[in-house]
Amino acid sequence: MNHGTPAPRVYVACLASYNAGTLHGAWIDAAREPDEIMEDIRRILAASPEPGAEEWAIHDYEGFGDYRLSEYED
Fold first, then answer.
1. What is the chain's pLDDT, residue by residue, as a tens digit (74 residues)?
2. Do residues 19 and 31 make contact, with C-beta atoms less than 8 angstroms apart?
3. Most buried residue, 27, 37, 42, 46, by CB count within 10 Å?
4. b/e code 57-74 from CB counts within 10 Å (16+ = b)
C-alpha cells in the first residue's frame, strides 16, 4: 500500500522544443530498466514539434526520497 510516497518518476523535456519556447515532454516511470526509460525518451523526442530533436533533460522528478537528480542525469 502506498502511504503518500510517490513512485519514482521523472519529467523529461525535449531541449529543442524548450529552446524554441515550447514545452514538450512527459512524465516517465523511473522504476524500470534503463533501456525501457530510454525508449520512452526516444518516443518523446520523435513526437517533438521541433524537427531533428535529439537532446533532452530532466526538468522535474519525484519519488526518489532524499536523492537529488541533476538535469542531465544518466
1. 456 678 999 999 999 999 999 999 999 999 999 999 999 999 999 999 999 999 999 999 999 988 888 877 77
2. no
3. 37
4. bbeebeeeeeeeeeeeee
